[in-house]
Amino acid sequence: MNRLVKILLGFLLVLSFTTTSYARDQIKIVGSSTVYPYATVVAEKFGKGGKFKTPVIESTGTGGGMKLFCAGVGANHPDITNASRAIKTKEKALCEKNGVAEIIEIVIGNDGISFAHSVNAPDADFTKEQLWRALASKVDIDGKLVENPYKNWSDIDASLPNKKIEILVAPPTSGTRDAWNSLVMVKGCTKTAKSLYDAEGKKAKKECAKIREDGYAVEAGENDTLIVQKLSSNPDAYGFFGYSYLVANKDKIKASSINGVQPSLEGIQDYSYPIARPLFFYVKKAHIGVIPGIKEFLKEFTSKKAMSNRGYLAEIGLVPLASDKYKVTRTAAVDLNTIKLK
Amino acid sequence: MTKEERLKKRHRAEKRFRFYGLTSIFVALLFVVILVQNIFSKGSSAFKKTVITTEVFFDQELLEIQNGASQEEIMEADFYDIMIENLIKAYPAKDRDEEDELLKLFSGDAEIEIKKAFLNDNNLIGKTITLDLTASDDIDQLHKGNYPRDLPEERRRISDFQLVIYDYFVENKKISKNFNNYFFNNGDSRDPELAGIGGALVGSFYSILICLLLAFPVAVLASIYLEEFAPKNKITDFIEININNLAAVPSIVYGLLALQILLATIQLPRSTPLVAGITLALMTLPRIIIPCRASLKAVPPSIREGALAVGASKFQSVFHHVVPLALPGTLSGTIIGLAQALGETAPLILIGMVAFVVDIPSSPVDPSSSLPVQVYLWSESAERGFVEKTSATIMMLLSFLIVMNFIAVYLRQKFEKRWN
C-alpha cells in the first residue's frame, strides 16, 4: 500500500510544478528558418558574454513566427520574430488587434538565393524569364496562356542544354520559396502573361508564381542539406537555396549565373546579382525592460562585430548591408524606433 | 499422382517455405546492418575531437589580474589578448592576414579554455604551460578525414595556407585527437566543434521522468480497475475499444492537442520538458494500459479464488496477490512505452521543442530540446561538422533504446512466473 501512496505523492508533486509561476528571464525568439542560423550565432555570442541567459530560438518559418509573435503581449509570447520578408499588412493588423502596438523592425543583412547544381555538371547561365518558363504552371506561347509544355531546357531557348528540366523546389511554407516567388517567378513572368492574367480577371502576381505540377519541378522539403545531397548525386538536377548553403558546400555544388552574374558577396549587397533579398527581425517594444537583455541583444546583433563586412555573420554567409542601410538599422536598434502599423 | 510423388511435393513446399522465411530474415537483417553501419561509420568520429597542443604564456602585461586572483576576478578578466598573443605563435605567420587564417584554426572557445586553465591554477602569471586547445570544425573534419583536401582551393573551406599550417602541426605532432567531452557536457551550439547533447540529454530525461510519473500510476490504476473491478457491460466495452483506438492514434495528434490545451488554454511555457512530458504521457498512456491489462489477465483465476477462499477481500486479493504477480509484465510494458516516448519527435515539434537552446535546463520548466529533436535540428544545419554529430546523437538514442528494451526483457524473464 505504501508504494501506492508514494506514487500518488509523486503525481501530486508533478502537478504542483504546473502551478508554480514561471517568470521568464530568457529572450524567446521564433520565426524564419533562413534567419535561424544567423540569429543562433548572435544568441550564442550574447550568452557567452555572461550577463544574460542565452536566448532560445525556435525555427517556425516566417509565417508561423508572425502568428506567434502577434498573438499578444506577455511572458507567454515570444519577444522577437525572425522574417525572411517584410511584415505583411495582414500580419500588422493581427498584431494591432492583439495589442502588440509597437514593433521595431531590424534589417539584418541580405540573403542571396543561388540557383545551383552539382560541381560535375557544366556551367550554366539563365535569365529570370527562362527560369520562370521552366518552372511556371502556365506560360504564354504565341499570345496565349497554355499549360507549361517545356520538357527540355533547349525547348525554352536553343542556347540552353538539351537536357530534361529537373528542378528541386523548396516547399510553399519556406521563406526561400517566398523570396524565389517574388524575385524570380513574378519578375521573370512575361508582360504578355501578366496582361493575359489581368484580362482573365485573375491576380497576375499570384498566378505567375504558381509552380508546375507535372513532375519537372520536384518539391524537396524544408531540409536544404538534403537538397544539396540530391544535387550532388544528380548532375542534371538544379535547385535553389540560400547563399550560405552554397558557401558551406563549395566542394559539392556550384551556382549557375543569372543574367551572366555569379552570386557573390558584393553582387548580393548592391543587388547586381538579381536574386537577392533583405532579411529582418521584429521586436516587441512592450517586452523591453520586462524581459531582461532585449536591448543588449539588439545592440549585439547590430554591432559592427556582427554585421559589418568582416563581422562574424558575414563569415557564415549573411551578406552585410551597404553602409547607408547599416546606419538606419543601427539607429533603429539603439533608439528603439517603431514602425507604423497602418 | 502416387503417394511418393505427393510426399515429395509436400517436402518441396516445406523447403520452399523455409527458403522464403530465411530470405526475409536475411533481408531484414541486411537493412539493420546497413542502417547501423551507415550511422556508425559517420558518427563514431564525433566521440573524439581534434585538439591543437599549444604553449600558453601568461604575460602579466596583457592581464589586468595578479597571481592568486579570486574566482570572480578571473571570471571578469579579459583573456582575449593572451589568447591572440599565444595562438599566433603556434605557427610563424608573416602578416596580419596569415595570422587571421591561423586564428581560424582554433575553436571559438579558445579564450574560455585558456581562462579555465587559469581558474584551475591561479599562479600561472609569468609561466608557460602547454594546453590542448580544441580545433575549429574545419580542421577537425579534415583531421578526421571527413573532408577532402585534394580539391581546388576555391571549392574548399580551408585555404592552401591553412593546409600548410595543418601539415606543419601534423609534422610536429602538435595535433591529436582527444575524448570529446564537449559532446556530452555542452548544450547546442552553432560551432560544430562546441556543440553537444548535454542539454538534449537533460531535456529528454526530464520529459521521460514526467511522462513516467504521470502515465505509470494512471495506467496501472486504470488497468487494475478495468481488469479486476469494473463490471462487464457496454460502457466498459466501449472504453476498451477506445483505449485500443487511442494507442493507434498518430503521435502528432497529441502534439496538436497539447498545443491547443496545454499551451493555448492553460498557458504552460512553450519548449519545456514539462509540456513535453505531459504530451508524451497522454500518448503513452494507452500504450501502457494495454500490456498492463494483458499481464493482469495472464494471472490465473485460481490465485484470486484462492485468496478469496481464505477470506481475503476483493481488494486484498488484487493488491496482495494479483498485482505483485503481474508486476514484471506491467513494468516491462511501461519501459517499452517509455522507450517509444523517448524516440518521439512529431508532437514535440508542435509544442516548440525544435529550438536552439544553449543553456542546459536546470528544471522541467526551462526551455530545452530533446535527443530526437536534436537529431532533427542538426540534420538541417549547413556545417559539415554536424553530419557526424547527427549520427553520433542517433547512436546515443539507439543505445538508450536498446538498454531500455533489454531491461524490459530482463525483468520479464527474471521475475515473470510461468503457469503451466
Can you walk me through this structure?
The complex is a heterodimer of chains A (342) and B (420). By secondary structure, chain A is of the alpha/beta class. Chain A folds into two domains: 147 residues, Periplasmic binding protein-like II (D-Maltodextrin-Binding Protein, domain 2), CATH 3.40.190; 165 residues, Periplasmic binding protein-like II (D-Maltodextrin-Binding Protein, domain 2, 3-Layer(aba) Sandwich). Chain A contains 16 helices and 13 strands. In chain A, the strands form three sheets. In chain A, strands 1, 2, 3, 4, 8, 9, 10, 11 and 13 form a nine-stranded mixed β-sheet that branches. A two-stranded parallel sheet of chain A has the order 5-12. In chain A, strands 6-7 form a two-stranded antiparallel ribbon. In chain A, a hairpin with a 2-residue loop joins strand 6 and strand 7. In chain A, helix 2 packs across helix 13 and helix 5 crosses helix 7. The model of chain A has no long low-confidence stretch (mean pLDDT 85). Chain B has 420 residues and is mostly helical. Chain B has two domains: 135 residues, no CATH class; 218 residues, MetI-like fold (Orthogonal Bundle). Helix content of chain B is 64%, strand content 6%. Chain B contains 17 helices and four strands. In chain B, strands 2-1-3 form a three-stranded antiparallel β-sheet. Chain B is elongated and about 90 Å long. Chains A and B meet through helix 1, helix 2, strand 2 and helix 11 of A and helix 9 and strand 4 of B.
